[in-house]
Amino acid sequence: MIAALLPIRRCFDFSGRSNRTEFWSFFLLAALVAALSYSLDNAGYWLIGTDLHSWELSSRLGDAGRGVALVALILFPLPMLALTVRRLHDIDESGWFVVIALVPLGVFVLFPVMLLPGSEEENRFG
């Protein structure tokens, strides 16, 4: 299975480990979906002309962008949380370190940790 889609299948699995490829490919997928949503939502502003057709098109593109955003907001948070916990397990850290992301600017502390290589040998998480 494609590494970017594996976290969606394992969204309720908070045990075990996930490597950097799985984490960053899913992160990239989420970023691309967010960029698509933003682009569709704002494309209407670029296309607005004086005729009615451009207003309809801009409205439909905006609706599509908001629809993509809604689907992403429903689909991505739980797999990302589980994936982050498993990624922390891969570097032999407790999954509770994910709470750091809730602290203001805590994401900037957690981000470099996600870049660390995982344990080569088996650790306490598998």
From TrEMBL:
Pfam families: DUF805 (PF05656). It comes from Stenotrophomonas lactitubi. This is DUF805 domain-containing protein. InterPro entries: DUF805 (IPR008523). Keywords: Membrane, Transmembrane, Transmembrane helix. It comes from the Bacteria. GO terms for cellular component: plasma membrane. The chain crosses the membrane at residues 21-40, 64-83, 95-116.
